[in-house]
Request: fold
Amino acid sequence: MRTQVVIIGGGPSGLLLGQLLQRQGIDTVLLERHSREYVLARIRAGVLEAGLVNLLHEAGVGERMQRDGLQHEGIYLAHSNRGFRIDFRRLCDGAVTVYGQTELTRDLYQARDAMGAAMLHQVDQVEIHGADSERPQVNFIHDGRARRIDCDFIAGCDGFHGVSRNTIPADRRSQFERVYPFGWLGVLSQTPPVSEELIYASHERGFALCSMRSPSLSRYYIQVALEDNVQQWSDAEFWNELKRRIPHDAAESIVTGDSIEKSIAPLRSFVAEPMRWGRLFLCGDAAHIVPPTGAKGLNLAASDVYYLWRGLRQYYDAGDTRGIDDYSALALARVWKAERFSWSMTNLLHRFPGQSPFDLRMQQAQLEYLESSSAAQTALAENYLGLPY
Ligand code: FAS
Ligand code: PHB
Reply:
């Protein structure tokens, strides 16, 4: 089998890249480890930057997001039982779109089906060979048969636990990591959101986030200890703890209900450099991870895809390699700024084991400075809205 670009990973990175390339007439084969049902059952991101929204429209998959997505022109930060609003429209004339990653992934799957582009699910033992040669290939098992695809390029869109990143020899790769001493317990409930906009709450008991997927579907998170597991958190215990951490007016008005999904996600900051090795390009979580406090994970995958799509298009249209040669440096420049923002929001809003009274005062001072300073709020707003591609 031969194709121009093999895409490993059928999450948002792989699907969006595949959609953009196929619409350009660039042939791709997408390999996904799990079933489509499994991929679509994962509850992940919820906030889309304008850059990702534009890219989805460019890929011809923006219609349902346009109809069902919620435009948000601000967020609330809450501390000391009060909230204050970061007004994106007034500060930066911008907005984000609330639309679940699950729905975005569903739209991308349907679009790929409609194009009849090649996609294999439940592939095993994917191996990349010759990435640093002129003739790379990908070997894998599918339906019990050993398969091989010869290609021009490989896009490693296979997430943090994929095979692509480790294909780059350890002595050619630098990795930077911070693992946070806590996780996020998330609940999805068929209830109306407590607030029209997201509430990021700092509290002495820990961080809490009130988010949503639609006017009738809410998404809530609370910071939990790393050793916690989901079984020890009943719905009632989750709701009681969430109410303790958000401002009293929100706690009194929140509509609680049965969890339709409940899971704990670990938090880490991680970057692997470079994001290219020969004819292998890393995209999205395969190359970097951010704590979700800044709503950047999915949105960083989008800017990686944009740079790689643009570079491959230049190569196939005109034999111009500048775009693919610049890919890693371009992508990493934006990745590191988002890593900083996500790290700073996580440090500001979470309680860390062993924090000194001085540390707590620094967090409080930063929150009060944000509450009182238009300049500080503008800096937060432009990062949350998404820095330019
Ligand atoms: P993904 O991990 O989504 O997709 C990679 C795909 O590759 C998967 O489908 C996997 O099955 C497949 N794969 C892996 N190895 C393979 C192999 N060897 N062969 C073939 N396929 C293989 N971001 C936010 O902005 N906000 C959030 O609230 C948020 N919450 C998150 C919660 C969790 C539990 C996790 C893990 C991530 C969360 N993220 C969040 C980040 C998340 O949204 C990612 O940024 C986003 O999924 C990145 O998309 P991909 O790069 O496509 O990686
Ligand atoms: C979500 O709705 O899942 C969400 C929103 C904003 C974040 C993280 C998660 O920062």
